[in-house]
Amino acid sequence: MKLTLFIGLSVLVLGSSAYGSSKTGGFSSQKNETIVKDTLVDPIDNNTYLGYKIVNFGMGLLGTPYVAAGCSKNGFDCSGFVYFVFNNFKIKVPRSSSQFKNFGKEIPISDVKKGDILLFLSPTRNVIGHMGIVTNPKGMESDFIHSTSGREMKVVITSLKKPGYTRRFVKAIRVL
């Protein structure tokens, strides 16, 4: 019961300051992060919160052009986008999609959460060649945000149920 009260208190405190007059727009303020660290919050809850922050940050980059080997707000390739988003939260991930083959913890697609990473085969080779960040976890119907070199040529949200991605899906990984 005491743990429940601490968790409730931290959510209440975060909730009240997140929508207050913070100059940083709420969730990114150092004060909020300290509150989470200093209270007894289940680590899984912290990772879920971080997953939401990662997705929200990535959503702010929707429409950014696809640029081969790009890794900045001027343009991204798929791994550059994932690298840029996670690096914003000081989470080290590989820069190249092929380096994700043995990176992170593989999880069943039915267990994905916001902020997990989906890996796909290259359209032309039998190697990891594409990736995205889960935005709406629904197993094999999950939505993910990614930088595509396809028709759109920009950062977009796509459903895993789209045949081109379902066919190339390799695995989901968690790095949080």
From TrEMBL:
<feature type="signal peptide">
    <location>
        <begin position="1"/>
        <end position="20"/>
    </location>
</feature>
<dbReference type="InterPro" id="IPR000064">
    <property type="entry name" value="NLP_P60_dom"/>
</dbReference>
<keyword id="KW-0645">Protease</keyword>
<comment type="similarity">
    <text>Belongs to the peptidase C40 family.</text>
</comment>
<keyword id="KW-0788">Thiol protease</keyword>
<dbReference type="GO" id="GO:0008234">
    <property type="term" value="F:cysteine-type peptidase activity"/>
</dbReference>
<feature type="domain" description="NlpC/P60">
    <location>
        <begin position="48"/>
        <end position="176"/>
    </location>
</feature>
<keyword id="KW-0378">Hydrolase</keyword>
<dbReference type="InterPro" id="IPR051202">
    <property type="entry name" value="Peptidase_C40"/>
</dbReference>
<dbReference type="Pfam" id="PF00877">
    <property type="entry name" value="NLPC_P60"/>
</dbReference>
<dbReference type="GO" id="GO:0006508">
    <property type="term" value="P:proteolysis"/>
</dbReference>
<dbReference type="InterPro" id="IPR038765">
    <property type="entry name" value="Papain-like_cys_pep_sf"/>
</dbReference>
<keyword id="KW-0732">Signal</keyword>
<protein>
    <submittedName>
        <fullName>NlpC/P60 family protein</fullName>
    </submittedName>
</protein>
